Fold this protein.
Amino acid sequence: MSDQKPHINLAIIGHIDHGKSTLVGRLLYEAGEVPEHIIEQYRKEAEAKGKATFEFAWVMDHLKEERERGITIDVAHRKFETDKFYFTIVDCPGHRDFVKNMITGASQADAAVLVVAAPDGVMAQTKEHVFLSRTLGIGQLIVAINKMDAVDYDQKRFEEVKKQVSDLLKMVGYKPNDIPMIPTSAYNGDNITSKSERTPWYDGFTFFEALNQLKEPEKPVDLPLRVPIQDVYSISGIGTVPVGRVETGRMKVGDKVIFEPPKVSGEVKSIEMHHEPIQVAEPGDNIGFNVRGVGKKDIRRGDVCGHPEKPPTVVKEFTAQIVVLQHPTAITVGYTPVFHAHTAQVACTFMELLKKLDPKTGQVKEENPQFLKTGDAAVVKVVPTRPMVLEKVKDIPHLGRFAIRDMGTTIAAGMCIDLVPRD
Amino acid sequence: MDVAAKLKIMPESPEVDLEKLREEIQAKLRGIADVKDFKEEPIAFGIKALILLVMVDDAEGGTDKVEETISALPAVESVQVIDVSRI
């Protein structure tokens, strides 16, 4: 594949049975990424059985088998390209416990495809995934209203589901008018690479056209420097070496840096990536850097490195918008689960339940609710039990989101919308 | 098994024998997850990470058990799931 085209990480989200895998299979097939021998093998089998029609399900099954057999670290993701971009697909798992991985993991999606089956419309998981994509800071969306074949390509049903999806998107802050919503049948290939004759009433983009309309992701180099610390080493002959991934900003050799919450400062003597010395580290770089003036015991995992002029924010309390993914009973004031934000894990107490939001309209459904349960979206006030670094999601999105965990499961996900810094 | 998870395992110090650590991890993960691939990735100043590709079940949910099992080993400093995707 070409290295010249910009690269986009594309997340596939939506309810588990709404045809995500079939859409992925279809994209790969239409982009010419299904190995020729699979198609050839199919042709022979079909001929032998006297079948003439192309059966997509067969190709899908064989693709999956092949992947399970041949998967390696370097080809763990499926890739395809259009004439404009080079795409890597992240097909999001359905289970809620993976939400933590999506929030604290390294691979940030640049755009998402929301798959909604036309017969079902918006389901609980559709809501969750839309909220999560917003929480994850995914600004660009494409909506596939899929399984149109199952509703006889009915325009009325398409419009109904489109309205449901638009309301949902509005609630979390997306602008539905700017988001392509395409009637598709991934199984039959309608409106994927060319306009389908079965939807003569539709005059918008095909799926591949919508992909080409996406904008190239920009590295957040202009935001303040933030490097959440993963581990801290003491290397003989070198000194203290914190290791982590640059989320935003740039770190240069010679920079004065500060680590929060401990508030210790030092100077960057050298930076290495892949064992090679580098002068400047940028967002996405996994680095180790040697700091003068900071001991191994002064800092630890969960601390964040920044520049002293714009130091990482240590919060005394913060306001969060959350969605409750699964909770066996109810969340009330006083509840203290563990918040996973960047590399930090800190127990935080719910101090106030400010409002419950109506997922359909985004309007406040209830002021000061007594409790929150599974499926609720809400705005809450939270106090960490020990100092932690968190940023407003609109200032530094990468450090403004978190997963909330308790008793071995992910119970909620959210973002910091306001905060009171430590004095 | 339908979810591929990539884990980044940081050793407790650069002196840790990653080959031995990998064998230990593979033995411990038997019955929990299917280890498909692994490689050593140079980070900085002699520190190398062990990258592991494992397959887990979407229905079973999460990578917690895998993470806990690996974190419990004395030679391991930290475990981070850097990537998850259905295959």
